């Protein structure tokens, strides 16, 4: 596709050059020439994303128009904006990008060729092109020659909306989607995650309306049995770390679809948190940080060595890398219908057990509740973990009402007899600030027990307040580890925290009691 054709499609004028689907070596040359990145001792490039080191959820909007009006779950997450404001900002973005060299990535979201979304990402920085090349599914030369975009994101990251008060917006940063015209605009923030999660939000609109469940989860497949598993959880709960397992090839680390044929990765790369990363605990992720990988906001020491322990810039230090950096992966990005679903929660209260077995009804309750903690750094203004409920373990990206996703999940779990588990990767022995974060060794052992059948026994204790079945034994672990109240020195404190958390669950779930009896799973949650 010629420069003139793309300029005409975008109504961008006087572009000196358009660089489309560059190779990694070509990207490195542009990053170097533009002074955008630094080469680290591991061979990966690193970039400073400037003021914004996490998403700006308060600045995300969707145009309210015939395509979106009836189906979008309007509210704090999906804020409505008028067609007029969108058009005005689109013109501003076009004017901002005119006269500048641009980078265009054409590729796909979705490994299943029959249902994937063709996407075009236009950026003004080479490192953003690098990010897209890492994160989305890269086309073959043949696919590139015959490419038509289903959805386009115009990333004018250097543009601030000085008229935001007149427009009634929250700040001069904006991320706006027009689902009818299939185009989005980003302005005022360089954070790469806005592009990644933007496409996820788009997929979360179109695909469920076609009967395809889109999910904020990672996925892998067992080498021995060929059994696939899904790991739901918000950022920082362990999706990427725990699904990267030497005994279970990775399908993907963050976003997946589930259709009539099985599951599939939405992406072509991984976006891992790197704070306190070390090769002993996470060897595959550490090993993936090499040439072609792109680090974000890490601190560099002498010799261009990355200090992964330093969160002075942000706790949300990241690395994006193409999925082929993980040797132990499913190359097709496809998997069978899952045998197990893991709901990962980072419990800041230290109340939930390391693992609990869920009935199908309890699975629906916890999917709609989406309890976890907001982990420092993944959003602006969050400095330390705090309890939150995020429907579908990803409410910030769910464009439809949560029950639309829950209905699809329940149907698919029933059809394929999928088992569900609640796994706490948060605190034990006390709340955040008193207790300690769950050791990854324990969590991995729990997952092994789920996959090898060691937890398929009847030796469980029922927690009547949290309404959870907790195992009494697993491998070398006994009640001292598996029962949360055993690890608390302050027993009265535990009881107070347990009742407090149960009350939060009950209060949160009240919002589903008036959306129809089929979604009133309140009797399957905690009880006061």
UniProtKB/TrEMBL annotation:
Protein name stated in the entry: Phosphoenolpyruvate carboxykinase (ATP)
Names of the cofactor(s): Mn(2+)
Family in the record: Belongs to the phosphoenolpyruvate carboxykinase (ATP) family.
Zinc listed as a keyword: no
Key word Lyase present: yes
Binding, Mn(2+): 197, 216, 254
Key words, A-Z: ATP-binding, Cytoplasm, Decarboxylase, Gluconeogenesis, Kinase, Lyase, Manganese, Metal-binding, Nucleotide-binding, Pyruvate, Transferase
Record's catalysed reaction(s): oxaloacetate + ATP = phosphoenolpyruvate + ADP + CO2
Gene Ontology cellular component terms for the protein in this record: cytosol
Pathway note: Carbohydrate biosynthesis; gluconeogenesis
Sites where the protein binds substrate: 55, 191, 197, 318
Species classification: Bacteria, Pseudomonadati, Spirochaetota, Spirochaetia, Leptospirales
Protein task: Involved in the gluconeogenesis. Catalyzes the conversion of oxaloacetate (OAA) to phosphoenolpyruvate (PEP) through direct phosphoryl transfer between the nucleoside triphosphate and OAA.
